[in-house]
């Protein structure tokens, strides 16, 4: 994890922080979380947030930081409230950790534990998500057993028709992780 928030995120977030009238948490997911917390080197232009707590200024943050806003155009990044996420681990909030504590005055950037973050990508399952998951596994942040356990206990019971929708994706991911770890191990021998 970088020691401080990298640019252009630092300037963008400081500008949003100046708008805050009280302490607020951004529950950060997606590429921003994978790069800033877990160190994956890939570009992302949006800061995906699952929620903003408390939501008293949520609308203002979203308007000022949204794609196409003056602030977003100035910094070439934007804030995006994720509203289409199918499902996420039931107790993810208890495992959030703060990213770069004390760097901003009012905003706390909260990031899910790696298994939670990976499982939040399960419903979408695009190539970028699979690359994020493989990276997290390669670096030892997630395990096949950890994903399976968290999915079975905290997600599957709340998903409609999981045997048709998410169970096959999880099986694919577990195979993908196993193959990627084997290939990585073989390339180091």
Please, could you describe this protein's structure?
It is globular and about 45 Å long. It has nine helices and five strands, in the order αβαβααβββααααα. By secondary structure, it is of the alpha/beta class. The mean pLDDT is 93. Strands 3-2-1-5-4 form a five-stranded mixed beta sheet. The longest helix has 21 residues, at 167-187.
Short summary:
This protein has 189 residues and is of the alpha/beta class. The chain is built from nine helices and five strands.
Helical stretch tally = 9
How are strands sequenced across the largest beta sheet?
Answer: 3-2-1-5-4
Instruction: Note the overall shape.
Output: globular
Q: Give the ordered list of helices and strands.
A: HEHEHHEEEHHHHH
The major beta sheet can be summarized as:
5 strands, mixed
Portion in strands: 5-15%
Low-confidence stretches: none
Structural class: alpha/beta
Q: Percent helix among the residues?
A: 40-55%
Structural key phrases:
alpha/beta, 5-stranded mixed β-sheet, 46% helix, 5 strands, 189 residues, 9 helices
Chart the SSEs and their pairings.
Blueprint: H1 9-19, E1 24-29, H2 30-36, E2 46-53, H3 58-65, H4 70-75, E3 78-81, E4 97-99, E5 107-111, H5 114-119, H6 127-138, H7 144-154, H8 162-165, H9 167-187
Parallel strand pairs: 1-5, 2-3
Antiparallel strand pairs: 1-2, 4-5
